[in-house]
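Quick one: co-fold with pyridoxal-5'-phosphate.
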Amino acid sequence: MIKFVDLKQQYNSIRDEVRKAIDGVLESTSYILGQQLSDFENEFARFCNAKHCIGLNTGTSALHLALLAKGIGKGDEVLTTPNTFFATCEAISYTGATPKFADIDEDTYNMDAEKLKKAITPKTKAIIPVDLYGQPADMSEILEIARKNNLSVIEDACQAHGAEHHKKKVPIADIGCFSFYPAKNLGAYGEGGAIVTNDKESDELIRAYRDHGQIKKHVHKHIGYNYRLEELQAAVLRVKLKHLDEWIEMRRKNAKIYDEMLEDCDVARPVERNYNKHVYHLYVIRAKQRQKLMEHLNSKGVQTAIHYPTPIHLQEAYSFLGHERGSFPVAEKCVDEIISLPMYPELKQEEIELVAKSIKEFTK
Ligand SMILES: Cc1ncc(COP(=O)(O)O)c(C=O)c1O
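Sure, here it is.
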């Protein structure tokens, strides 16, 4: 069986380091807002070449607080992509703002900057581009559009730790959100998330918001949340962060093998823009007979997945927005054809070859 993701292999490779780190937290009996968290925040900010990192309990909370830090609320519209994990949109709703969508680019599956331009209205206050599957969105163009229209940009980099755009690490926007959900390229052993920003004011506000609005003990300047990243998770993340560059290179090497082996197959391979560095959180192809291909792969012992089968505008929870099939045709077409193939750093060349060979067999 070739698993879609295999976290056990990664755990085996860092078992001693990670157990020592967890033990250290248990011995310290400091579980919340301690040294592990502040060390992780410094280290992850440095990894992103940014000034500040605020550790949070989830990527969803990161999106929520980033929107609040930019003053988004009721009456505002926030533009995002219909082809993303549900949480991107949900966070907009948490603030009372209304989510709006711009269709995607068929090659990268990321927000199409031209469509974005057309979707801006007088009520638009912010944009959330998503660096989907590990490839940065068209951030230079999006930031330029935002600048001309006086809009905030909150980058959803939840799938893209370490990705680059024009040789700069994400987030490219001055505020970006990460998830450390276990299967992410940098994953905790439970929930985790962070905001990375160069903006001092946002940093201070988010630090207060994540801890019940406190600016110091028992001084609650705001009504905030309990969105703190735990010491145990920060300690795990510190161990894993040391390996992240190597794991990214392993993912890229695996993607290259897939690319080469699938070259003459009737499937669309991922398109990595020449100004981007894709970190292949997911390796997503497109095939016309998606369901049958997935069944064929399954019969060969290859696990696959779909990220994501329903675009957000067609989810029942957002039916109140009034979108119908046909509203965002590119996203709708892509979600019917995409398949995520097995992808993780430790995947072996023979396994990738077997997956690719099985795809070839089917498409012939
Ligand atoms: C694009 C995207 N945005 C937001 C999230 C939410 O992150 P979390 O699951 O940590 O809340 C995720 C991860 O699941 C994601 O992939």
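If it helps, The radius of gyration is 20 Å.
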